[in-house]
């Protein structure tokens, strides 16, 4: 379970991405996190993961929470894919040989596992990050547009694996693709103008997200979206 308590965040000379967000993401439930480009979804995931500090308020994590899956910035560039995998295994206290075998199978990186990560393309790094995160039993997976990575075959495999994992754990999944969210999540949350509205029913969240005009490419909230954001109180756990 993840509890957000009056979380505030504004980037210097940037937008207000969290305006006193109070919410509960329950254990064992997969919640879709929806919002227009630049609403602050990735920033919220980073605060939940603990890699970005809120300006005020706090994030309480119960159980083991993943890093944002698909984010592979934390690997040591001079270590190989295999060495990075063993390192993560030690940090999380899982069997390194078992994790390495899993990552070899799932990542499709082959011989590149023996190359330093600095030589990887961003797609290869994301494959490594995805495979490692799926190989560690987290209680809550944070997923950020993971299927934007790799070719069609890899996307199919990652979707299947993710679905299997989410059957046993909770998750917060960021995606702009309602079809993908319907396949993975049951609940939803809509982030708009720094406020988060929680919905037990994913379809309700998708309807609000689409109805608020937030699917548009514009980075400015429409008057109707602004009105909704103003009315929508940041929700507590329901
Ligand atoms: N480190 C940073 N410093 C300054 N501004 C930042 C930083 N990180 C993000 N931002 C800004 O904060 C806003 C929210 O960014 P974020 O990536 O969290 O949005 P998002 O909802 O995930 O967007 P998208 O759907 O496009 O991925 C954007 O305007 C972005 O430019």
From TrEMBL:
Pfam families per UniProt: ABC_tran (PF00005)
Entry superkingdom: Bacteria
Keyword ATP-binding: yes
PROSITE patterns recorded: ABC_TRANSPORTER_1, ABC_TRANSPORTER_2
Domain named ABC transporter: residues: 2-218
Gene3D superfamilies assigned to the protein according to its UniProt record, in alphabetical order: P-loop containing nucleotide triphosphate hydrolases
SMART domains: AAA
GO MF terms held by the record: ATP binding
Stretches with biased composition (Gly residues): 229-238
Stretches for region Disordered: 217-238
Keyword annotations from UniProtKB, A to Z: ATP-binding, Nucleotide-binding, Transport
Protein family per UniProt: Belongs to the ABC transporter superfamily.
PANTHER family referenced in this protein's UniProt entry, alphabetically: TEICHOIC ACIDS EXPORT ATP-BINDING PROTEIN TAGH (PTHR46743)
Record-given protein name: ATP-binding protein
Organism of this sequence: Marivita lacus
């Amino acid at each position: 379970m993840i509890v957000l308590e009056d979380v505030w965040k504004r980037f210097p000379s940037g937008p207000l991405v969290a305006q006193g967000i109070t919410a509960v993401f329950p254990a064992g439930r997969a919640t879709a996190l929806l919002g227009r480009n630049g609403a602050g979804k990735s920033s919220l995931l980073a605060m939940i993961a603990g890699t970005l500090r809120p300006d005020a308020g706090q994030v309480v994590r119960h159980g083991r929470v993943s890093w944002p899956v698909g984010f592979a910035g934390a690997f040591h560039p001079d270590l190989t894919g295999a060495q990075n995998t063993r390192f993560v295994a030690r940090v999380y206290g899982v069997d390194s040989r078992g994790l390495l075998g899993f990552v070899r199978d799932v990542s499709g990186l082959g011989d590149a596992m023996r190359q330093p990560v600095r030589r990887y393309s961003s797609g290869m790094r994301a494959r490594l990050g995805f495979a490692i995160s799926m190989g560690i039993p987290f209680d809550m997976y944070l997923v950020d547009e993971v299927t934007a990575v790799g070719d069609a075959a890899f996307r199919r495999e990652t979707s299947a694996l993710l679905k299997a994992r989410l059957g046993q754990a909770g998750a917060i999944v960021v995606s702009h693709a309602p079809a993908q969210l319907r396949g993975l999540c049951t609940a939803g949350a809509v982030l708009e103008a720094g406020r988060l509205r929680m919905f037990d029913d994913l379809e309700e969240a998708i309807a609000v997200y689409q109805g608020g005009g937030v699917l548009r490419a514009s980075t400015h909230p429409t008057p109707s979206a602004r009105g909704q954001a103003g009315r929508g109180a940041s929700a507590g756990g329901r």
